[in-house]
Design a protein that fits this description.
By secondary structure, the protein is of the alpha/beta class. The protein folds into three domains: about 250 residues, TIM Barrel (Alpha-Beta Barrel), CATH 3.20.20; about 220 residues, Class I glutamine amidotransferase (GATase) domain (Rossmann fold, 3-Layer(aba) Sandwich), CATH 3.40.50; about 55 residues, Sandwich (Immunoglobulin-like). Helices cover about 25% and strands about 25% of the residues. The chain has an eight-stranded parallel beta barrel. A seven-stranded mixed beta sheet has the order 21-20-22-23-30-29-28. One of its GO terms (molecular function) is 1,4-alpha-oligoglucan phosphorylase activity.
Length: about 725
C-alpha cells in the first residue's frame, strides 16, 4: 500500500520533537494535539501540522474557582437507605461518597432545598421533622416509624472534576492540584468563561483548533469513598442541577421540581429509565441553555479566526448532537472516542458540522502501554470493529490520545497503526459522500428515539455490561450492515405513525426500561398503530422483553405479532402444547454453531400452532417467527455482538420484511466477510473482518456468484463491470 498523508491527528508532548517528526511522517498525520496531562512546546507547535489545543471551559481555572467557591457546580445526591429501629434515626448522608469530590451545600437552606423521604411509604417527611448537624454532616429524623427505611436527598458542591480525578488516580499524579468545576449559569463564572477565552485566544496564536473538552457540565460520574466509580451515566444530567437552575426552571415552566424528580429513587433518571414529563422538560431546559452559552464561545473562537471542535465526552451534557438545538451552536467539528462500530456511527452520523473525528483505541496510557503487554491486540480489535461502520459512513479524521512517548516504545504497535492510517485514507477516498447500497430501512424504537441515535443500551460510554451486551449487539451489528438505520421514539409513532419507507421496526430491551418501553405500551394509540402497520405488511422484531408490561392478560403487549409471550406464573395451569422447533428456517440457515443469545430470557412460550418455533430448548422458546396479516413478527431472546449474530439479525430483518428474495444481493456467504457497494461510483468492497485468511462466495448486485479468497483483514476493492 502506497504511503498517503492527512486526516490523522497525533498526540504529542513537550521535549519529544524528533520522535514527533518521525511519527508525523510514518502515520501521515497532519494535526497535533495535546491531552489531559500533556502540553505542546513551541518547537512542537512550529511543525507543519494543524495544532489542536485542549480547552477546558469550566475546569482548570482554580485561581478563579477558589475565589468563587459558592459558584462551584452542584449536584443532588441521595443517601443510602437507612433503617429506623426506634422513633428517631440519624443519617450520615455522605456515607459512601468521596469527600474530596463533593461537600454538602450549606450556603442554601437545607430545609428549603433538601428532601427526606420515608421510602417504605413514599411519604415526604416535613422539614419540621428533621434537623441537620452541619459540623458532622448528619441528618436526624424524629418521630420515625420503626423498621421503615429513610433517605435524604441533599445538595452538594462538586469540588473536583471527575475526569481529572479519574486521570489523577489512573496516572498517579500525586500532589497535582484538583481541578475545581464552576457553573457558568452563575454570574461571575459566566462572565469569566467568556473573558478568559477572549484573552486565551490572543495568548495562543499558534492554536488552529480549539478543542473544547467539552463545555459546561460533566456526565454524571460520582466516586465512592474507596475512590472508585460509584455511579456512572454517560447521559446523566446530574452535574447540571443547581439551586439557580431549579429557580430558573420554575420561573419558566410555572412549577417547581422536587429533589425526587432528580434523584429518582436513587436511579438518577438513568438513560434506562422511561423518562418522566418533568425530566424531559428539565433536559430540554438544560439543552437550550447549553446551546445558547456554547454558541457565545464558538462565536468568539470564529471571530479569532480559529475552528471550534467539541469533544463528545467529559463535559458534553446538554449538547445532545442529535437534539433540536445542537446545530445552533455552530461548531466546526466533533471528536469522540471510538469503542466500536456503534460509537463510530454515533460520531460520523452527527449532522450540522463540517467534519467529524474519531479517537481510536487504545489510549496511550500506562494501563495499556506497559512492559509485557501487547497493545496491538486492542488496536486490531478496535480497528476491525470500527472499520465495518467506516464502510457505511466514515468519520472525516481519525486520531489517538495520551502520551506519545509511551506508544513510541512499542515498535510493533507503531508499525500496525501506520497500516491503519493508510487504510483509513483509502476507505475515506472511496466511501465518503457515496451512498452505500442498503437493502432495507430499519427503525430502532424506544423512549428516546432520534435524540439518542446509536446510543441505546450504553451506561458508561461503550463499556460492556451483563444486562446490556445482549441488546447493544444489535446496534453494533447494524453499524456496519447494508441497511439504513433510523431511531424512532414512541411519541414519533403516536404523533405521526410509522414512516412509510421503514421496512422493519426493532424493539429490544428489558421490561420496564426506556428501551423496551414499559408503561408506554399501555397507550392504545401506540399499540393500535403498530398492529395496523404490521398487519398491512410491516416487519416487527422484538428482542429480550419487547413491548413488555403486564396488562390485559398479556406481558408482551404485541404478543399477537410476535407469536410468543412470557410466563409470569399466572398461567402455569394453562397447558402449552406448542414446543416443536422447525428443522430449518430462513433466519438460521447460515448457522455454524449453536445460537448465542447472551443473557437469555427465560419462560418464553409459543401462543399457538401458527408460531414458527425456530429455537426451543430447556422448555422455552428462544427464537420464533409469526405471520400477522400481510406482515411478520420475529422474536429473539438476546443478540450479543458476533459475526454469526450479525448474519442472524440480517436474515431476521429480511424475513420480517418479506424480502428474502433480495437477500443475496451484494452478499458474501462467509460469516467473517461482508460486502459494501457504492452504486454512484460503481465500486464495491469485499471485507475480511477477521485476522485470518477467508474464502467466501461473493454475490454481486445482479446475483452473479464467484469465489474469492481474502488475506487477513483484507479489503478488496473492485469496480462493477
Amino acid at each position: 500500500m502506497s504511503k498517503t498523508k492527512g486526516r490523522v491527528t497525533l498526540p504529542s508532548e513537550s521535549n519529544f520533537l524528533e520522535e514527533t517528526k518521525e511519527m508525523l511522517d510514518r502515520w501521515g498525520a497532519d494535526a497535533l494535539r495535546d491531552s489531559d496531562g500533556t502540553k505542546l512546546d513551541d518547537e512542537i507547535k512550529s511543525l507543519d501540522a494543524k495544532i489542536y489545543t485542549t480547552y477546558f471551559v469550566a475546569r482548570g481555572h482554580n485561581e478563579f474557582a477558589k475565589e468563587h467557591m459558592d459558584e462551584c457546580q452542584q449536584m443532588l445526591l441521595m443517601s443510602k437507605h437507612n433503617l429506623a429501629t426506634s422513633d428517631s434515626v440519624t443519617i450520615d448522608f455522605l456515607d459512601g461518597y468521596y469527600r474530596e469530590q463533593v461537600i454538602a451545600d450549606y450556603v442554601h437552606d437545607p430545609k428549603k432545598w433538601w428532601e427526606v423521604i420515608d421510602r417504605t411509604t413514599g411519604d415526604v417527611v416535613p422539614a419540621s421533622g428533621w434537623s441537620v448537624d452541619q459540623e458532622k454532616d448528619l441528618v436526624t429524623i424524629e418521630k420515625t416509624v420503626p423498621f421503615h427505611e429513610y433517605t435524604v436527598s441533599f445538595f452538594v458542591y462538586a469540588i473536583w472534576d471527575p475526569t481529572q480525578m479519574y486521570n489523577h488516580i489512573t496516572n498517579d499524579w500525586g500532589d497535582k492540584p484538583h481541578d475545581i468545576p464552576f457553573d457558568v449559569r452563575q454570574a461571575n463564572s459566566g462572565t469569566f468563561a467568556k473573558d478568559y477565552l477572549k484573552q486565551w485566544l490572543i495568548d495562543n496564536p499558534d492554536t488552529d483548533v480549539v478543542r473544547f473538552t467539552t463545555f459546561f457540565y460533566h456526565f454524571t460520574l460520582v466516586f465512592g469513598a474507596d475512590r472508585k466509580e460509584k455511579f456512572v451515566d454517560w447521559f446523566g444530567y446530574g452535574a447540571t442541577v443547581s439551586i439557580k437552575a431549579l429557580e430558573e426552571f420554575e420561573q419558566e415552566y410555572g412549577y417547581a421540581l422536587r429533589p425526587e424528580d432528580i434523584v429518582d429513587n436513587g436511579y438518577y433518571n438513568s438513560t434506562f429509565r422511561v423518562p418522566t414529563k418533568a425530566y424531559r422538560q428539565y433536559m430540554d431546559f438544560i439543552q437550550r441553555f447549553v446551546a445558547r452559552k456554547a454558541k457565545e464561545l464558538v462565536d468568539l473562537t470564529h471571530e479569532a479566526g480559529r475552528e471550534a471542535m467539541m469533544f463528545l465526552g467529559d463535559n458534553w451534557i446538554g449538547t445532545e448532537p442529535y437534539g433540536p438545538y445542537f446545530e445552533s451552536i455552530g461548531l466546526d467539528a466533533v471528536v469522540g472516542s471510538v469503542g466500536g462500530g456503534a460509537t463510530l456511527r454515533l460520531i460520523s452520523d452527527i449532522p450540522g458540522v463540517k467534519y467529524t473525528e474519531g479517537r481510536f483505541l487504545p489510549y496511550f496510557f500506562p494501563d495499556t502501554f506497559y512492559e509485557g503487554n501487547d497493545p496491538c491486540i486492542e488496536a486490531i480489535d478496535n480497528w476491525l470493529s470500527a472499520r465495518r461502520a467506516l464502510m457505511r459512513n466514515p468519520v472525516d479524521r481519525i486520531g489517538y490520545g495520551g502520551y506519545l512517548s509511551l506508544a513510541y516504545k512499542f515498535p510493533k504497535f507503531v508499525d500496525y497503526i501506520e497500516k491503519v492510517t493508510d487504510e483509513f485514507r483509502l476507505i475515506y477516498d472511496n466511501v465518503k459522500g457515496k451512498k452505500p447500497y442498503s437493502g432495507l430501512k430499519v427503525a430502532i424504537l424506544n423512549s428516546w428515539g432520534r435524540l439518542r441515535s446509536w446510543q441505546a443500551y450504553m451506561v458508561a460510554h461503550a463499556l460492556w455490561y451483563k444486562q446490556t451486551y445482549s441488546y447493544f449487539g444489535i446496534l453494533e451489528s447494524l453499524s456496519g450492515a447494508a441497511v439504513d438505520v433510523v431511531f424512532l421514539s414512541f411519541d414519533d409513532i403516536r404523533e405521526n405513525g410509522v414512516p412509510a419507507d421503514v421496512d422493519v421496526i426493532i424493539n429490544a430491551g428489558d421490561a420496564g426500561t426506556a428501551f423496551s418501553g414499559g408503561e408506554e405500551w399501555l397507550d392504545e394509540t401506540l399499540v393500535t398503530a403498530i398492529r395496523k402497520w404490521v398487519y398491512e405488511g410491516g416487519g416487527f422484531i422484538g428482542v429480550g422483553e419487547p413491548t413488555a408490561v403486564h396488562h390485559g392478560g398479556r406481558f408482551f403487549q404485541l404478543a399477537d405479532i410476535l407469536g410468543v409471550d412470557k410466563e409470569l406464573g399466572y398461567t402455569l395451569s394453562t397447558d402449552k402444547y406448542f414446543t416443536k422447533a422447525l428443522d430449518s428456517h430462513f433466519i438460521t440457515k447460515d448457522r455454524t454453531a449453536c445460537c448465542e443469545f447472551g443473557e437469555v430470557k427465560h419462560d418464553i412460550y409459543a401462543l399457538s400452532a401458527d408460531t414458527e418455533i425456530i429455537e426451543y430448548s430447556n422448555n422455552e422458546v428462544h427464537m420464533a417467527a409469526n405471520t400477522y396479516g400481510k406482515g411478520r413478527g420475529v422474536y429473539i431472546s438476546g443478540l450479543p455482538y458476533s459475526y454469526e449474530n450479525t448474519r442472524l439479525l440480517m436474515r431476521a430483518m429480511y424475513y420480517a420484511a418479506h424480502k428474502e428474495d433480495a437477500f443475496h444481493v451484494w452478499y458474501a456467504d462467509n460469516l467473517n466477510c461482508e460486502v459494501n457497494a457504492y452504486p454512484e461510483s460503481g465500486k464495491y468492497a469485499i471485507l475480511n473482518n477477521s485476522n485470518e485468511t477467508q474464502t467466501t462466495k461473493f454475490y454481486d448486485g445482479d446475483g452473479n456468484c464467484k469465489t474469492v479468497t481474502l488475506e487477513p483483514c483484507e479489503i478488496r476493492w473492485e469496480e462493477k463491470k
